[in-house]
Queue: 3 jobs
Job 1
Amino acid sequence: MMNLLSLCATAALSALLGSAALAEGSLYFGLSGEPRTLDTKVNAGAPARTIRLAIHRGLLNYGTTGELSPELAESFEVSADALSYTFRLREAKFHDGTPVTAADVKATLDYLTAEASTATYKAELSVIDTIATPDERTVVITLKKPFVPFPHYLALPESAILPASWIAANAETPDAAPIGAGPFRFVTWERGREVVVEKFDGYYKPGKPAVDEIHYVFYGDENTRVNAIRSGDVDIIDYVPWKDAAALEQDPAITLDSVGGPFMMLQFNTKEGPFADPRVRQAVSYAIERSAIINTAFNGRGTPLWGIAVPEGTMGWSEAAANHFSHDPDKAKALLAEAGYPDGFEARLLSTAQYGFHQNTAIAVQAELAKIGIKLTLDLPDWAGRMAKNTAGDYDVLVAGTAGDITDPDWLSNFFYGGETLVRLNNSAWFNDAEINALLDEGRTTLDPAKRAEVYDRFVQRALETSPFVFLMWRDQSFAVRDTVEGFKNLPGFLTFQSGITVEDVVLK
Amino acid sequence: MSPLIALVPVVLRRLGTALLQLLAVATLVFAMLFLLPGDPVMILLGQDSNPTPEAVAALREKLGLDRPIAVQYLDWLGGVLRGDFGRSLANDYPVAQYIAQTLPRTLELAVAAILVAVVIGLPVGIAAALRRGTLADSLLTSATTLGISVPVYILGALLILIFAQGLNWLPASGYTDLSRNALEHFRKLVLPAVTLGLGLAASIARMTRASMLEILGRDFVRTLRAKGMGETQIIWQHVLRSAAIPIVTIVGLQLGNLLGGTVLVEALFNWPGLATMLVKAVGDRDYPMVQGAILTIAAAFILINLAVELIYSLLDPRIRRRRQ
């Protein structure tokens, strides 16, 4: 009781003094979850990337315009045979004060591609043959074979450059004391609550950053997250729930920053049963009225997808391919009959009860497919359970919502390529089409942009014929930003999950 | 025999039972975790990666998850007996440290909620009893019925809507360290504590009203009045004191339930306590963290109930005698 009294006294005292203890230049960023890890080499989801993009920079990054931007490398050249990349490093410092050198770049890339490495993009970066460091500020990377999207993989947050000394000391405990060359220095991570970073005065962009510190506060519950921004507890939130978007738009103190980018799709187990037949998968595509999903699960905030999820204006996109399918239940039934299922069949649909939009998409799909006689039983474990079943191929149909990793069309490989591991997170289990594999290989190695575009046109045709996925819609992805914050930007398309990089431009009013 | 010494065998027997209960909880939770689909190794290696089977096997071995479940269980249990709760699978952070950080926040929330409950519940109950049968009594009694039946997530949402978003008096969520800014700390405590405490306030008010009415009808009250004692003195010195025992019991018994209520309230207000930690650990399939959190909550629950029972028998000799 004494303690409580003294607490009350303290409270009263500080009430008199006002809330001067709160730092002036602090940005409060409400994140949709707490990262498992801040390990740079692992893609541990959007919140982890958001934080890491404040702390770390790579040779390249996707900059604030969505284009590849030179960061720790001030420039790079590609040899005519596309086998050799020469990076010229700028003068930059790590948070421990040491300069970023060619040796650090080599140590980082060796670390990512080491035999025992668990780096998410190890396979893609393993195209590196040798790394030469002729001087402190020059790195020459030679590839085993031409790999056109290579710079894009270097631009991912998972390819951030680390000090060689840090790797030697901390590779086993990456969360203990992260060090990078980004605009903010890691201060603390209080588990279950927040990560705090502070302004790094030695950042290589003059005058940046403008904010003294950022608190990345974890708000796992979406309603709590929305309440937090509405009452001003935080300045920015990510992953605005679609049901709340309209209300936040109308709030005069808040701006809703929305882009279309991620997509929703169905994955199929193509090993056996009805869904092994491409005609059945196409029937599913014809059967589903896309607006039913957009309205049921996303409050109307999305755009129908009637082809392959290739963004407009990129290789492989064409008017015809983008409108290949349509809502045509009769055609769907005819295709089902042709495949030997005139009366439909029963199957399991895997989704998750943990996220409303996943569950509601599943419910809408179930209702649409019931109309052509496909009776789906919903399987709705929590997210961890759903992921386990996904990567074990334990599903007939699966609701997925994701985006490409990079803006180069090679992002398609991760989804469509067969290869050695036929059951993966983002593929349709057991799908393996020789023609598709060959086209994706060709796309990776074709240098001439016009020829490369042709390759992806052919790829899209084959992808429509085989239809391993049924793409449903592009969904809006939004941040809500209070008007006291200037300079934060939701990056377009697939890069929405890398928007965290723009905190270097944030100014508090 | 002094009443305290007489309690010793009771306490020992109850502590023994408590240990068995804890062992049962620990075993049950361990078994349940392994029945859940979801693999901590795959979660750790990253959702968007396609880890090689070698990397998966290596991490599984490193975390000791390749051993038979019985071995893992006995190993964990042995650690707990030595006071070692193990380390988080997700980030190697000591589980005991997590608990040491988050448990005080949950307890603070629970204690604040009880204060709210007593400060609101007691006066309301007394007022209703003294105005029995009037409009005020009906209003207060209906309000308590409402208070007991409204779930915390609806009550909490309403309070946020009114006091955080409408009037903008209080923050809707979050937590500030006491050392950083004490005023902010308590401002952020108000809404969750009220949300958690109002239900209990309603229970206390009803119990106070009933208990007061029962005592007010007793002969000794009539005697006191006949002797010419003032009504205020009768109420405060005699009636309330006699009515206190059932009220104290209610508060004690509800403490355990409050701990359960914190799961929802912490989520609603983003209060970084033990319950928040537990929910996240389940999502990550972070077995040692889940085990440690559940064991702590179970131990708190059992200890509180034990303490309440002991205090109760100290207060009321009849109960003690029955025990013996």
Job 2
Amino acid sequence: MNSMNTDNDKEEDISSSETAELADQGYSAAGEVGMIKSRRTFRENVWRGLKSAPPTALFGLTVITIYAFFAIFAGFLAPYGEAEIFDLSYAPWDDQFMFGTDQLGRDVLSRLIYGARNTVGIAFVTTLFAFTIGGGLGITAAINNNGWLDNLLSRSVDVLMAIPSLIFALILLSMFGATTLNLIIIIAVLDSTRVFRIARAVSLNVVVMDYVEAARLRGEKLMWILWREILPNIMPPLVAEFGLRFCFVFLTIAALSFLGVGIQPPTADWGSMVRETAGLIQFAKYDLTAAMTPMLPAAAIALLTVAVNFVVDWFLHKSSGLKD
Amino acid sequence: MSDQNRGKKGDILLEMKDIVIDGYSDDRWHEIVKGVDVTLRRGEVMGLIGESGAGKSTLGLAAMGFARPGCRLTSGTIMFDGQDLMKTPEAKKRALRGSRIAYVAQSAAASFNPAHTLIDQTVESVIRHRIKSADEARKDARQLYADLQLPNPDHIGDRYPHQVSGGQLQRVMTAMAMSPRPDLIIFDEPTTALDVTTQVEVLASMRRIVEQFNTAAIYITHDLAVVAQMADVIKVLRYGVTIEDADTRSMLANPAKEYTRSLWSVRSIEKDEERSDDIILKVDGIDASYSGSEKVLDNVTIDVPRGHTVAIVGESGSGKSTAARAITGLLPPSKGQILYNGKPLPPALKDRSVDQLQNIQMIYQMADTAMNPRQTVRDIIGRPLEFYLKLRGRERDKRLMELIEMIELDESFIDRVPAEMSGGQKQRVCIARALAANPEVIICDEVTSALDQIVQKGILELLLRLQREFGLTYIFITHDIATVKAISDQIVVMLQGQVVEQGMKSEILSPPYPDYTHLLLSSVPEMDPDWLTGLLAKRKTEQAAG
Amino acid sequence: MHPIVRTILQRLGLGLVTLFVVSLILFSSIEFLPGDFGEAVLGQAALPETVAAFRKELGLDLPVHERYLDWLGGMLTGDMGNSFSGRGAGGGQDRSRAVIDLLAPRLANTLFLASMAAIISVPLALFLGITAALYRGSIYDRLVNACTLTTISFPEFFVAYILILIFSSFNQIFPSLANISPDATFWERVYLSALPAMTLTLVIVAHMMRMTRAAIISLMASPYIEMAELKGASKSEIILKHALPNAWAPIVTVIAFNLAYLVVGVVVVEVVFVYPGVGQLMVDAVRTRDVPVVQGCAMIFAATYILLNLFADVIAIITNPRLLHPR
């Protein structure tokens, strides 16, 4: 009877007469049948996941892969340097400049490719930073549930979150000046409040589990409990949250750059590219390609966010076990 | 429905044939109910009994032509009074629900709408189906409340669900089901969430009202003793198939199937008690409270003899689990002390030495939450071996195998994670984790109450064997008297944070009783269809005498 | 005291504390200005006496707490100080304007735009969200879901430029610049604000519809909804009688959250359409580090946001049956 549990796929389809027989058997601990999940390796899981993924998620994964490729190999793929200036400003689309040049005479295609590295890279670093701060504090607060530290952190976060984050970012940027480093720090700190909330909430669900209590009763140190008992169990929701936070951070930085207080020139960045060439939209009726110059970086931003959202949506759907 | 529509008693009311119901999980459809037949006559009460995963609730809802989200009625026929609910359009089924078929849910607290008063919800379906006028319906509801022995029947209906207790809410829900005078009521584990002393009253009033209006009912439960009080016939389900159909008396007297007998298997074990004065652990007059509020433990003193079992019995809120938390140091007592081998233990967990922690181990009620779902059995049992005994590598693995054999599992389990084991197997792994520390005392907090009867028996036998072999001391916290009989030497009865009584099992379980022990013991349903009738008669005479 | 009153008072108290903290942060922004900001504001040629007078005007010679009380008093009475810009104008003359004078007309414009977007988007989003939740899993639901997921992924300026391309560049239906003059009539304002309002509407509807859908779905999963179904209630009865009385709190929360979001969303949209509102003023002020103007704008945005959330919480409190009918 021991082999019974190892291959679930066979067991699920036994006919009712067999079940009847099985159902009236005596008891043995190892042979006890329950709602047993079949065991799969990590690779099988990934493969099964991909096979069952909806087209939107596959699309999202493909887009993310392409962006990552361009971001990593920007130096090889871009025809010109990101700040290289040619004599010709607002050059039309042709063989030399595939998407033309901007108001200063920089190649739009090259700046788009470098933008993948700069805009996405800065957003990614900011999100990582936000997760390190917010996640760390959130888990700590959960362990210290209702202690003074938890109360202090939670109340401060309540207050910070009561201020709209774009406005807060604008205030802080006006206080400290709009440099890229300031931008990363400010957005990361502001966004870490959201991460704090979710990290605290998911950790609280884990902290109250008996296995954490069992570890405490055993006499384990706090770090061990954090690292071995809590962290592995809050990873799936945090990964999904990372995707959502990344989108949010990415859009916030793009908006700030678009407003001219984000990533500063001459760094190639999609948000500022839109701002710098926005005026060309007026000429759409006469030269559609010219009007596309500001639309390309805007679309690049939109496409990546859509892709990440599609993937997160699928991930959440899968991990919540919700079946419509 | 008006009376002329009702058939005679004894006519077939509901006939379900070859019912197959699928459930969606793990990305595909699985059969939950695999071809079950049900025949129910007017005025008859059928007990539908089975353990978790037997498909009994799903089948019960199918009798209303209803499938929960994530389930589908795949095939079969459901003939209710001449119409096949499998083929009936939704609008017609709606006309039946809440008028001719009614439902009583397990969790009354969640099943009442928090935004409406109880009486509005009681009469809702009657008014919707135009069975009575609103005034008549309300008057009738108040009468039903009185019939169900609810306190203050004229006004309790004006309250909101969160304003009344769980036992009362369950009775209001019965009134709600009865209010349209349906032909059939489905009771879905209506007393499972209640304490035994409350359960008796609710059972009695439900049974009386079903008899009073001669309503047919399907009573779903996992507790055979409960269903024996309610049902005329019993159907035993397991894994979605019928194991046995019989009338209640003959099934209890002479079950045809091995499995049916196993449903009261815990009652077949009984440990012979032993007296001992060698006290290993003494809880000495402790008070405890959560964050300075009301006392949860009030001057509790418990003596635990070495190598024996003390069962702490009580209902929810009695403080029995809090006592365990105080012993382990999770909740330091505000007064009194805990003596281990005559020496006081530091009250707080963080002040205790590794040796002290090692000596007292704990096993939890829910094996599911007591094990990290991301760790394998090797990690779970191996960690205390490393932590306390400093065993590494081959030595550790050797001990690990010994422990796994001790709990009657085999090496195929060693790399499994909790999700790959059944409930009983998980609890065994938890026992092994406690054993791995080589403890002297193990606190068992309701370790069998989440398990099916047959599995409970296996776990209890394992614990008894381990006690014999290793001289372990158990502090066994439970609300179930059958479990207490099976495992304990001594019993402590707790009520509202105080110890009501402590003594040898034979003394506690035989008269004379203090009032509360008597109430508690007499409220435990027995495997006798006449038990409830007898108990009610007895209580009535006692009341008249007292 | 009735528990409702107590809970509401607690919530009001929290709101006040939050406003207080916001004011502290805003006030301290002037402290973080670099030491030579006086020259930066007044220009290189400013005389030392002018710089000193300027510092005195800002009260930098007074102790911090006195300055804070002074500043807070000013904020509460509408005196938000003077803008930095224009200070360095020729001849040491001070041509700066009072922040309140800059702000007031623009605030009216911003409120006009936000209300216009809200009036269209709130009913539309509630309708879409509720219907999508009720027909969960249908083609309609999936379509609305995919569309809104796409829209929330788009940066606001992208949505804005797409609308400009369609409605302004190719078909000259609406103007792409919303430069409203102070004496424009109501309908002129509506016409000029059409594209910015449309952009905001699209973005808000997407967010709000998704939140409404999620709120309704979690509500519909309650056991008491299943109970209503088993009592023979029809779909419309379940929604009107059983879901709706419990849905006020989540729905109002969604509305307030999105109105608050609207307040912030106007910043980008105003810049795209050169709409003379508070958002554009604030962005310009941030770029030139005109601190008094930033303070004024930020205070208005933050206060609106906090009040809207406060309002939602109060509604949630007074519709909660557990608080309404205490034990």
Job 3
Amino acid sequence: MISVRGVRKAFGSATVLDGIDLDVHSGEVVSILGSSGSGKSTLIRCMNGLEKLDGGRITIDDFDVSRPKELSEARKRSATVFQLFNLYPHMTAVQNIALAPVEVLKIPRKQAEADARTLLDSVGLSARADAFPAQLSGGQRQRVGICRALAMKPRYLLLDEITSALDPEMTSDVLAILAKLAHDGTTMVFVTHEIEFARTISSRIVFLDKGQLVVDLPTAEFFAADGGMAKPRIAQFLSKMRKD
Amino acid sequence: MRYTAFTSYDIVLLAQGLGVSLALFLATTIIGLFIGSLWAVIRFYRIPVLAQIVAVVAEVLKNSPVLVQLFLVFFGLPAFAKINVTPVEAAVITLSGNTAAFVYVIAVSAIESIGRDQIEAARVFGLSRWQILRRIIAPQAMAFAIGPLTGLLVNQLQVTSLISVIGVVDLTKIGNILNLRTLKPFIVWAVVGGLYYVMAKLVAFGGARLEKRLRAHTAWKGL
């Protein structure tokens, strides 16, 4: 379980997260919605230990991400897919995927690369396995990013606006992969602006506004007129997103 | 009159001088690359005290004439530190230090040119600092640095000619000896200059080949 308790984070005088409480249980798909600057990406960065907390506590399967000795164990249990892919440009798709399994999990290189090719095949990229990131389209890069995360066999997948840099066609390719992962029972925390997709695959939806958690509701309840939609801020946000 | 004529042995002398220049260049390049890279890593990890010392030493070395550094090492070490050094030792110390200072500057900018997003990605997948340095930073930093490093090494090759002033019998010193004996400066210095030119072109050629290999990942081969 990912447990977030009273998390606070500020950059200078700007408070970005203000007392966030959240639990993500095994098998859940939790979508985090909110307008730009609401703290969604910062929350993901706090979960994977990239940002130091100013208060509160985050544990992944009881390993505290704020404690250096426990962070590596927490990171073995979760994997992140980034908005701008963050692939290593000097490595091929296969090498990008196999790097962490070889270096961190100590899987023999041949085995890790064979696993990487299997993963690439599963996302329709077997023909591009030996291409460098510069030779791939945005959608292909993001699919490599997803494979890189899956290669670590994580219990939790953290996805930070992974379709926001893609055009609609590429977005649908990537979302199809996520839908399959959700169907297979992969636990995911999904920061997104894709409202309809979040509605389709999420078990719960969390809404952040100005660093505060406004609601944390099962998906159906979130979109119900007497549920999340009853909150003026959420109704306003959803209305604006649908217009866009 | 016959004393001023060129002999076949002059070719042997030139080859010996060339060998000394090349050996010093290679030795000081290897030492300089190692020390300069090490200093850059110290700076990258912001190791307290050491990072500041390295910055000051590099600043002094790259902003003072090599000839002055050479004299300070050759005459200063025996006078002030009671350490006697041979001309070759003084040349190795000076040129290595000078090369290291410039390698440091190039390596620091090469490391800083690597996107933090890649380092963050490696961190969240659990790679250690050493693994990140070895697998992510070093290969890319080398690709970025190889162009400026080639330029630096071509320049450092020419700088080796200064060591003749403290008595190292390198290519320039041999040129000086032949010039004094034959009194044919235009021929002697044209030959010596030609040999330096060929060596410089070889260094540049090797650097360009290596750069092409290291930057293979930037080649666009179409979708």
